[in-house]
Design brief:
mainly alpha
């Protein structure tokens, strides 16, 4: 192998070098895209039409189409060099956020259970109760992403803690979670009750959220508890949810949310 070919190989490996966890996620995305195309008799060719259909299809499930497309692009761009260009087309990104807004943030198509039912289920186990009411607080099993007990604070009628890192954090600086008191299923009081029970059992542990047996809760564990109370159409909440999600949670219609300037989509 001459030096030119060796340089080309080094460049190829550098471009395609990714972490093991990222590699697994990318492979999942590529597999999902290929399965979609084959099951719908569509070519793998990433045309704008195919990518838009894929985003529309995945938005009906608890999935992240943009993230999956990143994985598909990573593995298929050598075959389809224009994959990234098609994925970045204004037509495809506009489909994704509008479709997810319609499917995930619209309350009119969901039959919400009583708040107290969700928050007070298994009320004799504060760890289960609190985690069920705070779906974005789940840590993954790596120290940089574990929510620390030391970050939890209670001030007046508020409670707050810090998420050091999560998949919706593009700048790797974490997110501060602020909870306000509510008249029904008060999350501040629930968090206080959980913290008291946690400190009695595992006061010396660094992690804020700990299961009753001392292990850290996983996403699969949380899903099993959460979806035992509500349907799976309630999944997929974003840690970067803004005003539109808040107002939708209050039951306001899309037209009112748009009038408030919190929802730019016309979907």
């Amino acid at each position: 192998m001459d030096l030119k070919e060796l340089d080309a190989l080094v460049h190829f490996l550098q471009v395609h070098s990714i972490e093991e966890s990222t590699k697994s996620n990318y492979a999942t995305g590529a597999h999902d895209y290929i399965c979609f195309c084959t099951s719908h008799n569509l070519p793998l060719d990433p045309t704008l039409s195919t990518l838009s259909c894929y985003v529309a299809f995945t938005s009906r499930h608890i999935a992240s189409a943009p993230k999956y497309l990143t994985g598909a692009c990573h593995y298929l761009k050598d075959i389809y060099p224009y994959f990234d260009e098609s994925r970045s087309s204004p037509l495809v990104p506009f489909v994704a956020p509008k479709r997810f807004v319609v499917m995930l943030f619209t309350t009119s198509h969901l039959s919400l259970p009583p708040t107290s039912k969700v928050l007070l289920t298994k009320q004799n186990k504060p760890s289960i109760t609190m985690t069920s009411s705070l779906p974005q607080s789940l840590p993954v099993l790596s120290m940089p992403a574990i929510t620390l007990r030391s970050s939890l604070r209670f001030e007046d009628s508020h409670a707050a803690y810090h998420l050091p890192y999560h998949k919706a954090d593009p700048f790797y600086c974490g997110t501060d979670i602020l909870l306000t008191s509510q008249t029904v299923g008060n999350p501040v009081q629930l968090l206080q009750d959980y913290a008291d029970a946690r400190d009695r059992l595992y006061g010396a542990r660094a992690a804020l959220f700990i299961r009753e047996d001392g292990s850290l809760p996983t996403r699969a564990w949380f899903d099993s508890k959460f979806f035992a109370v509500v349907g799976k159409e309630f999944g997929g909440h974003s840690a970067r949810a803004g005003g539109a999600t808040f107002y939708a949670g209050l039951g306001l219609s899309e037209s009112i949310i748009q009038a408030l300037g919190r929802w730019s989509s016309t979907a």
